[in-house]
Specification:
Largest sheet: 7 strands, mixed
Protein name: Acyl-CoA N-acyltransferase
CATH topology of one domain: Aminopeptidase
Number of strands: 7
Number of helices: 6
Strand order of the largest sheet: 1-2-3-4-5-7-6
Organism: Aspergillus bertholletiae
InterPro entries: Acyl_CoA_acyltransferase, GNAT_dom, Trichothecene_AcTrans
Oligomer: single chain
GO molecular function, one term: acyltransferase activity, transferring groups other than amino-acyl groups
Radius of gyration: 17 Å
Keywords: Acyltransferase, Transferase
């Protein structure tokens, strides 16, 4: 399984929406995002918005030996990174390797966050607002006004787990954070916690949302 990192393109987004459904298939995520056509379409549109957002970078891991005839997935992982805010009085970000430069006068619509309301009709909007609102509060509580990288979402196809896919996608951002001397924040499930701890992340707080436990974790260069 030779693996290669790529920057995602808009044509990838329907595949990535399906990969999200495949990767996050537990009861909580199924309740959060029901398996319905409008939810799939919402995910594809949300990811397309984030590809256009110069403060975000959507990367994929491709299995270059995948055989479609055997129904083997080509894209076996994806990660959405939020890049640090621009340094004060500097007209461009320090984003590298495919991440676009951002002018101080960047148009507001180009900075739109794909993962935000309005939620798909099939979703419980109140439930989504509670969950994502609390996640944002924990992020602010942990990081305050710092500049930092943030892992919005990271998923690996079940067929490609324990093959280094998640580590590849994490190292993409960790190397950039190390070069800039800034921290990295993420909210981890209990299943992913060990992977992140091996990469040097530390738990700063733990929250239980209707039985779904997540850890706020920080990596310091």
């Amino acid at each position: 399984m030779p693996l290669k990192l790529h920057l995602a393109t808009p044509s990838d987004t329907p595949t990535l929406a399906t990969l999200f459904f495949t990767t996050f298939s537990d009861a909580f995520n199924t309740k959060l995002f029901p398996r319905a056509p409008d939810v799939h379409a919402w995910w594809a549109r949300a990811l397309a918005k984030d590809i256009r957002n110069p403060r975000k970078c959507l990367i994929t891991v491709v299995d270059t030996d995948a055989d479609p005839a055997k129904d083997e997935p080509s894209i076996v992982g994806f990660a959405l990174w939020s890049l640090p805010a621009p340094v004060a009085n500097v007209s461009t970000t320090e984003a590298q390797s495919g991440a676009k430069s951002v002018g101080v006068e960047e148009k507001e619509e180009e900075l739109e966050d794909g993962f935000s309301a309005p939620w798909p009709e099939s979703c419980d909007a109140t439930f989504c607002e509670r969950f994502f609102g609390r996640n944002h509060e924990r992020q602010v509580e942990t990081m305050g006004g710092k500049r930092y990288y943030y892992v919005d979402v990271l998923g690996t196809h079940p067929a490609a787990r324990r093959k280094g896919v998640a580590t590849m996608m994490m190292n993409w951002g960790l190397e950039r954070a190390r070069q800039e001397g800034v921290e990295v924040y993420l909210s981890s499930t209990q299943a992913g916690k060990l992977v992140y701890e091996k990469l040097g992340f530390e738990v700063r707080s733990t929250a239980d949302f209707d039985g779904y436990v997540q850890d706020s974790m920080v990596w310091v260069p």
